[in-house]
Amino acid sequence: MEINRHGLNRRFVVTNLSGSGRGIYHGFYVQRGDVPERPIGELKNGLHMDRLSFHRFRSNGLKLLEHTLAYALVVLHREAVAALPEVARAEVGTLRQRLWKVGAVVKTSTRRIWFHVSATWPHRELFVRVYQAVRQFTQGLRTPGTVVPDAALLLPM
User: For residue 80, is it within any domain?
Assistant: First the structure.
């Protein structure tokens, strides 16, 4: 049962599962919405998958494939940062707001890329921890003999 601004909203579920009704509803039916509904919502709202504005079928198919690959990268990112509770289950919009859409000065050389962010950026320490977790995760995936240069990261402006 839920009470909202419109009043009482009773929920009825007909099932062949045994157990208490409250336990079945909260333990099974509410939890199953996390699997199919959450990725669909993130693809639609976080990655704007529903914006297929091309006039040709193949163009829209390619754009949909790009959105799907972007979501696969988000899932891989979540796997890499699973030990950090602040971002382990964060939605795409939250990740974009806190970690990805950040003003920075980017300087490159032949071997390095430097990201100079503001020393007062509130999510700076979180970004460093996420960077370290992703780096540790990718080192576990690296094949022997592959050399990845160290990156100088987050120098204050």
Answer: no
